[in-house]
Amino acid sequence: MMSGHDDDEADLPGHPDEHIAPVPRISVQAYCETDKTLAAITAAGQDRRLAKAHLTAKDGGLAAAIEAYETMPTPNVIVIESDGTRDILEGLDDLAGVCDPGTRVVVIGNPNDTAPYRELVRRGVNDYVVGPVETIDVVRSICSLFSASEAIITGRVIAVVGAKGGVGSSTVAHNVAWTIARDLSLDSVVIDLDLAFGTASLDYNQDPVQGIANAVLSQDRPDTALMERLLAKCTDHLSLLAAPATLDRVYDFGAEAFDAVFDTLRMTTPCIVLDVPHQWSAWTRRALVSADDILIVAEPDLANLRNTKNMLNVLKAARPNDRPPLYCINQVGMHKRAEIEVKAFAKTMESQPIAVIPFDSKLFSMAANNGQMIAEISKSHRITETFQDIANRLAGRGEVRKPKRSLLGPLLKKLKARTSRRESAPHRKAS
């Protein structure tokens, strides 16, 4: 696969359609010619998608790599920068003489390189990136070596969390996951991470005897077979890893407690939706930072405004090479409640919400009490359309749709008003 810099916005890290899957536990060694590339590769080692990789970067380019591997084994991946001063094909031939079988090679080339790409491939180069490179270019190149060729850990993880307790983040997560599974026909799994008070089993009208607790508390590392046994089937394309919702124990976990569960499901499931409880602990922070997309659900009040801003700032800083976290505003228009206007909320966030969900107590309470999704209660309701828009965005199917203004709107409005006046005229005359 040949990489490079082009103007296609789908290649930008902020574009919703780009999905870069993380790598398994591998070793990566880079040999650079320039300080800029050395800095980019060092920064890539801090990216969440390379969290399991042991990455080192050194100066010296091809010559240093050849000298080093004459006396030591090669890693899983070698990244070589060419500054264009040496025949790159000759250098790769020398590298091949000291390179162990199975090692993958990424070349960061120079615009002055004249070697045809097919000749690089013949010499075992797995990816070629035209320099100068940014951090995201390095991340994309290394990750593509594994996700494209071996389909390792390719599932997309979406984390949904509330800016405050009781804002309806679980309801949003469950409806969005159901919509992704039904409307996009993507095999999806919802993981209810609120082990003590989770509501996913109630919302989907399920009563599983096993779930996420069995996986995370298992003495053995969870494998695909175990996960298949623990999943409850909700629809043809949607499964649930339910929370026990019992208080017979305290659910305290370390930061990496759920890593094995997420990694195992990534290998078999295209879309995983995490229903993250409103708490700030080592494992909830890790779950959010490690996700491919984050959706913060907030209500239009001051506490939610503050918490959403804080969460956006922290998560942006922890994920510098990722798309920014998204947020939506829920329960807007509650009767007799003073609210912060959406426009003012967005100004503070310095970004627009991907959705504004109106308050409808009858619709949501009916769905919750029946164990149904909003679309099952009212297929044509505007909130159903809102969940479809959110699902498309989070699943990488494009931006949220914006309502279109019809050119005939004003004319139709006038005609409707005129018709109403004509219909009421006989009644006024009769009176």
Secondary structure layout:
Layout: E1 2-3, E2 27-32, H1 35-44, E3 54-59, H2 61-69, E4 77-81, H3 88-96, E5 104-109, H4 117-122, E6 125-130, H5 135-150, E7 156-162, H6 169-183, E8 188-192, H7 200-203, H8 212-216, H9 224-230, E9 232-233, E10 238-241, H10 259-266, E11 271-276, H11 282-290, E12 293-298, H12 302-318, E13 326-332, H13 342-349, E14 356-358, H14 361-370, H15 374-377, H16 382-394, H17 409-430
Parallel strand pairs: 1-6, 2-3, 2-4, 4-5, 5-6, 7-11, 7-12, 8-10, 8-11, 12-13, 13-14
Antiparallel strand pairs: 9-10
Short description:
Helices cover 40% and strands 16% of the residues.
Number of domains: 2
Q: Compute the number of strand runs.
A: 14
If you consult CATH, what is the topology of the largest domain?
Rossmann fold
Report the total helices: 17
Strands of the biggest beta sheet: in what spatial order? 9-10-8-11-7-12-13-14
Q: How far apart lie the N and C ends?
A: 81 Å
What can you see in these coordinates?
This protein has 431 residues and is α/β, with parallel strands linked by helices. It folds into two domains: 149 residues, 3-Layer(aba) Sandwich (Rossmann fold); 239 residues, Rossmann fold, CATH 3.40.50. 40% of the residues lie in helices and 16% in strands. It is built from 17 helices and 14 strands. It has an eight-stranded mixed sheet, sandwiched between helices. Strands 1-6-5-4-2-3 form a six-stranded parallel sheet. Helix 1 packs across helix 5 and helix 2 runs parallel beside helix 3. The longest helix is centred in the last third of the chain and has 22 residues. The protein is elongated, with a radius of gyration of 26 Å. The protein starts with a strand and ends with a helix.
